[in-house]
């Protein structure tokens, strides 16, 4: 399917230059007026607008180096890695938690989300006008667009707290719309907007099982319920977490943990939502995702950033199969026969970013898993325990442990089970971009970072800085986060 790249609306220096209401850039070579609706007034044309949203997740600024730095290298699960003298532009300061409001990774992540949100708004603006496309398809596509917009706003609110809510395409001549682009909303307002989008998506999205095999990576009803449960988790709405987790049906725990992070296991029985990498030309995978995290040095295949920390290694219990499925060790042989020579620079690398078939490629077939059933069980366990239903939480925790080759948790009290669930989230979801935000939302951050030799400054490092360039443009309509 041809990808449509929608003109960028990223809250940059010229807000209305090339506004997405004017044109689409097709294959980056030609412009097609969106006024000529007939060009897209069919099922294939309608789908293209939502395909362009998914395409955004393959971009360097959305899912690759900056995001890896912001959401992973900052944590106690990872170190900068690479060579000592290679900072990766800003990965050294991210690792040390000494970044400021001009940090490139914080800026690129902020900008990328709004670029994607613009694509969502473009789709939601045009799809109702495509009266020759199937009404059922258009309804489903609008549900996908709302799910993806909610997903991006969840990233924004976790990273930056309150941000502008851009819920429609801006009119370049409207002062009200210009203010919409610049005016910070509270985190509570952003969460309410996310919940509204997800509830509306749930009404029209199909179950994962209703999709054809070539569409299994698209957003489903289960994905919307799972993300809504996670949004509830971050707001400590415990009963809603349980209620929404109970509505995530049709999934099961994959018997093989390692299989989920290999090509054969992608979009499998446990997968609820993941970003599809492909790796073949001309269909592209995630730009630089595997390469930037691949083993560096003689006999290696990448830049070597975002390496597992000793702290993470120490977190695994003896016999936990997740350790060898998550960490590539120097001097070992991988499942596909590739030897990791002793000449690579770092002792450990991220196995979940590894591609067997396209190891040396810039765009590989490695996927990013964002929602899976194991996390649904852990979210439900956490909520049950917080509501005092500890005896009901323990079997869910044990289900995850048993798949990892471990016995029942020894924890029995509410406090001990809480700690056990938090630890289980760490080793179960390592390198899946949850650790930093888990530490913040559970109040563990200061102590956890201190144990890893990092200084977490309370009332500052809970959030990343809103880009200084945007604060200047907002001219008082958005305030910088504390400490920056």
Task: Tell me the radius of gyration.
Answer: 22 Å
Average pLDDT:
92
- Gross morphology: globular
Report how far the terminal alpha carbons are from each other: 44 Å
Low-confidence parts: 1-32
Say how many strands there are: 9
Read across the widest sheet, the strand sequence of neighbours is 1-2-3
Supply the number of helical segments: 19
Biggest sheet character: 3 strands, antiparallel
Structural class, by secondary structure, is: mainly alpha
Helix content: 40-55%
The SSE string, one letter per element, is: EEEHHHEHHHHHHHEHEHHEEEHHHHHH
Strand content: 5-15%
Descriptive account of the structure:
- With 484 residues, the protein is mostly helical.
- 43% of the residues lie in helices and 7% in strands.
- The protein is built from 19 helices and 9 strands.
- The chain has helices at residues 43-56, 60-63, 65-73, 91-95, 104-126, 135-160, 175-182, 187-204, 221-234, 238-246, 289-293, 310-315, 322-326, 373-386, 390-403, 414-428, 435-441, 445-451, 468-474, and strands at 4-6, 23-26, 30-33, 78-81, 271-275, 305-308, 327-329, 348-350, 368-372.
- The strands form 4 sheets. A 3-stranded antiparallel β-sheet has the order 1-2-3. It has a two-stranded antiparallel ribbon with strand order 4-6.
- It is globular, with a radius of gyration of 22 Å.
- The chain starts with a strand and ends in a 10-residue tail after the last helix.
